[in-house]
Design brief:
Layout (H helix, E strand, L loop, with lengths): L7 H25 L9 E4 L1 H8 L7 H6 L9 E4 L15 H33 L1
Antiparallel strand pairs: 1-2
């Protein structure tokens, strides 16, 4: 078996895209339940896990940091936001305006991740020619 680090960035980008997709679903659920009494908004935590996995080595290149990431430990987690204040009497804490902004932000992030993913494959294809 050949040991290679060619797919390091692709693996990390894949996990990030999965997390972004999961966040899109969470935001869509929030918008769908904005009139449900007692519903608490959901969000996805991935960025803090990625930051922790990349480490804080100041004098380490990004290639070295990405090579050290164990992608099987990168798993996005969905959580309920109980800390958000509810401005409604029924206890629902979903703000449709904030959720729509978060949705637009997440869609741009997902498109950028897919573009980076495609660029990495284009780079591999160029090297193989």
């Amino acid at each position: 078996m050949i040991q290679t680090s060619v797919f390091n960035y692709i693996n990390v980008l894949d996990k990030a895209a999965d997390a972004s997709w999961l966040r899109n679903e969470a935001i869509s659920n929030n918008l769908s339940n904005m009139n449900t009494p007692g519903y608490k908004r959901q969000d996805v935590d991935f960025e803090s896990q990625l930051s922790k996995a990349l480490g804080s080595g100041r004098y380490e290149t990004m290639d070295a940091k990405v090579a050290g990431v164990r992608t099987n430990s990168l798993a996005p987690t969905t959580f309920k936001d109980y800390s958000g204040y509810s401005y409604r009497i029924d206890g629902n804490n979903v703000d449709p305006d904030s959720e729509n902004v978060a949705l637009a932000n997440n869609q741009i992030k997902y498109q950028a991740l897919v573009a980076a993913y495609n660029q990495e494959f284009a780079n591999l294809k160029a090297v193989m020619k």
